[in-house]
Amino acid sequence: MSPEQWTRPEAEGADGPPAAIAAKPTREQVIAGLRATSEGGADLVQLLTPEGQRVTHPDFDIGVSDAQLRDLYRDMVLVRRADREGNALQRQGQLGIWVPLLGQEAAQIGAGRAMQPQDMAFPSYREHGVAWCRGIDPTELLGIFRGTDHGSWDPNSMRFHLYTIVIGNQCLNATGYAMGQRFDGKVGDPNGEATMVFFGDGATSQGDVHEAMVWSAVYDAPVVFFCQNNQWAISEPIERQTRVPLYRRASGYGFPGIRVDGNDVLASLAVTKWALDECRQGNGPVLIEAFTYRMDAHTTSDDPTRYRLADEQEAWKLKDPIERLRVHLVREQIADQGFFDGVDAGADELAARLRDFCFNMPEPPPERMFSEVYAEDTRQLAAQREDYLKYLAGFADDAMAGGVR
Amino acid sequence: MAAPALERPTTTAGAQTITIAKALNMGLRASLERDPKVLVMGEDVGKLGGVFRITDGLQKDFGEHRVLDTPLAESGIIGTAIGLAIRGYRPVCEIQFDGFIFPGFDQIVSQLAKLHFRSQGKLKMPVVVRVPFGGGIGAVEHHSESPESLFAHVGGLKVVSCSNPVDAYWMLQQAIECDDPVLFFEPKRRYYEKAELDPGTPPVPLFTSRVVRAGSAVTVAAYGPMVRTCLDAATAAAEDGLELEVIDLRTLSPLDLDPVFDSVRRTGRLVLVSEAPGEASVTSEIATRVQQECFYSLEAPVLRATGFDTPYPPSKLEEGYLPDLDRVLDAVDRSLTY
């Protein structure tokens, strides 16, 4: 059923409720428009079907070379493998928590590969695939989840902000950054700069996301809002967040909103590339709703069997982003077995490297607690550091004196 | 990425008698002139010049991209300022009234305070949040609050408060130059009190407190709007032959307590004064530190005259809520009874 339909429901009969009430969609109509329809609705942009069939779209078609297709496949496989290794490391007690991205590889690789080096990305905390595209090595993500740092990369040079855990905060930070790009005169030509911010369907209920869309509209900020609607905010389903498909909200702020098949890496790439170009040229902002599904738990602390049915997950397995591209590559003879074996070997190597790195990560020294709290240190903090280190040194003296504690 | 230092003479030459409001306006103007990366942003700060006219005329002279009339949402003001700071700007946000800072509280404590630490110094957060604060103007609720202790409690933030036109002029420029986020609390009920400002006289450092009246009987320390109250109390006490030493704290985080310790070692007595509720506040922190540092010098317990531990009352009751000259002198008298 098209999402259009539920805004204009059939008129009730003479015995039915008054027109004002009758005009309201039924609960079933609302839910059908929001979630897990087989195709994501009539407006869904798709270039590669779940069966691996290449299809065209009048507005968002894209030319992709065979080599690019193979690269996109490799990206998705490696990122999935890194994600699964993160999950396994948590299960082995090596990480305190992991945030799985399983099922969202196409949305993230499509969006990430659409970005240019001069663009800036503001992630939430599940954007391991986008991080990959920005050149952040997956080992750099481990410290956050092992508890050795809050993100070790340089956000400015990588043009990838630190993971943001408070839901929706990063949307305003991204909008401010994009305003700066505009004030700096970096908008208005095909080589201009753009910003993309990543958030989930749950975040759309946050005031900060709403405010970011207001701000970006009134300041014409070159920002792409990339919402990964993975259908669930921990245990809360999408219909607990909204009564309209999320991409439609954009019209209320005065900019375009597009729903793309988030399990289709080509469509995600094409739509995001278009949206970033719009921003570069000064026609932003744009909202993209990547219609996808979180195949694993919200985090390793979560238990999705308590709130969702297995058959829903089974249905989404048939739309797996990697499998459909694999089928396409095979069917069109774009890749042979040697290629697939090579990619798998690369994934094994990456997983082994992650594991080794994780096992050998040094604990941060205690003085790290006090370092870089301020650009200009304070006397109080310097005194606290000195006292604490002296206190710790006292234990070292005991140990050197031969006492076994 | 530090801003150019405060060496250049400002455009305003010669001493003049001005209000705190005008001094803040001049300070903003000087900063906007000195550094093209400085932005002023907030609700009504453009054409209107702010509800207190602190930003009067700035948009006209610096344009809509330097002085931004923003949509009406405090989280949006702070959250976009953070993004602008990452981009290399130095935003100065105006929160219209103290009680309205809470919608922006999340961005201040979750992001602004922590990004330098989280990034291990790779991200600088040179953002100033200006907050007209405190009561005594007969306003409706949410327009008279003193939330400064909440921010002093948060690691990663710096908190200051000015009490006179000279400090208003310099401290605001210094805060804008600082690479750390600074909460800048302005005593709104003193906005229109005047003093002489000579921009040619060099400023005292931002994160320092200062003795503003010397005395030997009792030390009285305050900040922002209560400094004037304490000076008036000292004048009244002097008529009775009692010399109070008055300290303007100026910086609440980090605290600069050396002048307080020195003073207490001489007088043996300390009265702390603030409009904010006393419980779990800046004044309770100072009392703790003074008893740690000056235990053997104290002749009396540290006493306080503060707002009560209640929500700010309806304005017909604020005269009783806010410490005044008499409550300060009463605390001084109690200190002297030990």
User: Any idea what the radius of gyration of chain B is?
Assistant: 20 Å
Total strands of chain B: the figure is 14
Low-confidence parts of chain B, pLDDT < 50 over ≥5 residues?
none
Radius of gyration of chain A: 24 Å
Main sheet specs of chain B? 7 strands, mixed
How many angstroms separate the termini of chain A? 71 Å
> Helical region count of chain A?
15
Taking all residues together, what is the mean pLDDT of chain B? 96
**Biggest sheet of chain A, strands in spatial order?**
1-2-3-7-6
Q: What is the average per-residue confidence, as pLDDT of chain A, rounded to a whole number? A: 91
Secondary-structure element order of chain B, as H and E? EHEHEHEHHEHEHEEEEHEEHEHEHH
Indicate the structural class of chain A: alpha/beta
Contiguous runs where pLDDT drops below 50 for at least 5 residues of chain A: 1-14
Number of helices of chain B: 12
Question: Largest sheet of chain B, order of strands side by side?
Answer: 3-2-4-5-7-6-12
Gist of the model:
The complex is a heterodimer of chains A (405) and B (338). Chain A is built from 15 helices and 7 strands.
Could you describe the 3D structure shown?
The complex is a heterodimer of chains A (405) and B (338). Chain A has 405 residues and is α/β, with parallel strands linked by helices. Chain A has helices spanning 19-22, 27-34, 66-91, 105-114, 128-133, 139-146, 155-158, 169-183, 207-218, 249-253, 265-280, 310-317, 321-331, 337-359, 379-400, and strands at residues 120-122, 195-200, 223-229, 232-233, 236-237, 257-261, 286-291. In chain A, the strands form two sheets. A five-stranded parallel β-sheet of chain A has the order 1-2-3-7-6, sandwiched between helices. In chain A, helix 3 crosses helix 4 (105-114) and helix 6 crosses helix 14. A seven-stranded mixed β-sheet of chain B has the order 3-2-4-5-7-6-12, with helices on both faces. In chain B, strands 9-11-10-13-14 form a five-stranded mixed β-sheet, sandwiched between helices. Classes of the chains: A alpha/beta (405), B alpha/beta (338). The interface between A and B is large, with 42 and 45 residues.
